[in-house]
Input
Amino acid sequence: MASLVMNLAPAFPPASARNMALLVQLRWMAVFGQLVTIWVAGHLFGISLPLVQLVAVPVLLAMINLSTIVIGREREGYTYLELLGALMLDVLALAWQLYFTGGTNNPFAFLFLLQIVIGAILLPPSWSWIVAAAASLAFIVLTIVARPLALPARHAGHPMQIYVFGSVVCFLLIAALLVFFVIRIDRNRRQSDAALATLRQQAAEEHHIVRMGLLASGAAHELGTPMATMSVLVGDWQKHPAIRGNPELQEELAEMNAELLRCKKIVSGILMSAGEARGENPAVMPLSAFLSAIASEWAERTNGAVRWIDELHEDFQIISDPALRQVIGNVIDNAVEVSPSFVELRSRVAGGMLELDILDRGPGFSQEMMDAFGRPYSSTKGRDGGGLGLFLVVNVVRKLGGKVEVRNPEAGGALVRLSIPLAALASGGRGRK
Output
C-alpha cells in the first residue's frame, strides 16, 4: 500500500518548491524596483509616464505573489510547467513595462538576459529554450513597436546621459541579482543533494532490513522443528514414572520447558523486528496499559532496576503492536546492560507525539557512538552482529513517522528518546484516565 501511495503521488522536480519561493522573492524585488524606478523617473527626472499602465503591473505581480504563497502552503512542489509559467509571466510583465517606456531604447531591456539565465538554471534545456525564445521575441517586437519616452526639455538635448545612467543602474542590478540568485540556487542544490543522500542511505538500510528479514524467517523455520521436538520430549519425560517420582528432575524439566518457551518468544521477536511485525493480530489497548506491561516485565527481569515514570495526562487507545514492544525492549535491554541497577522509562505526550525517554546511569555516549547511532553493525560491545538492535529501533520508529534522539544528560548517564506520532499508534478512540 505504501508503494502504491508513493506511485500515485505527483512527481515534482527536486527543490521545485524552494525554486518557486526564490522566484517569488525575485518578483517582490521586481515590484519594489519598478515602483522606485517609476517614482525616480517621474519626480527626479521629470519624465511624463503613463502611471496607470505602469503601476498596474507591480500591483498584479504582488497579487500573484500573495496567491502563490497561500496556495504553496498546501503544495509539496511544482512541475516544470508551473515554473515555466511563472517565468513567462515575468517576461510578459517586463515587456509590458518596456512598451510604455521606450522599448529597447530603455536600458532596462537587458533585464531579459537575467530571465533567460534564470530559465536556463531552473528548467531543463528544452524548456529553457522556450524562455529564451519568448524573451528574444519580446525584445525584437519592442524594437519595432513601442511608445517613446517624452523627455523633459532639460534632458531632451542630452538623451544619452539618461541612457548611460540607466545602463549603469541596470548593470549593477543584474550583477547583484545574478549573484543573489546563483548563491540561492547553489544552496538549494546542496540541500537537494543532502536529501538525496539521506534517501539513498534509507533505501540501503531498508534493503538491509529485507535481507535480515529473509535470514530471520529462514532461521525461525529451521529452529522451529528442533524446538518443537524438544518440547515433545520434555513433555514425555515429565510423564515418565521414574521422573515423576523425582522432584528435583521435575523442577529441572519445568525449567527446561520454560526456557524453550522463552526461545520461541525470542524467535517471534526477531521475526517482528525484521519486518514481519503484523504476523499476529495486534490487540487494541490503552497506552498506559501497554507501557505498564512492558515496564512490569522488565522490572521483573531486573529485580526492580527498571522503573516507569508515567507523565501521561490522558490515556489513548493504541494498537498493541509487537514490533513496538520489541523496539522499546531493545532500548531498555541496552540500557540495562550498561546500568544494571537503574533504568528509568519516562512517558509523556507532547504535540501529538508519544515521547518515551529511556535513561540510564552508565558511562554515556561518546561522540563517535552518537555519530554512528542506528547504523548496522555499529556497536561498542565487541561482538559479531552488534548494533543490529538499535539499527532496527531507528528504522521501525522511522517507519512509524517518528525519530530517535540520543544525548548525555548533564547529571550523567545516557538518554534515548523515542518520539512516535500518536496517529501512527492510535486506533481512533481515546478516553480519560
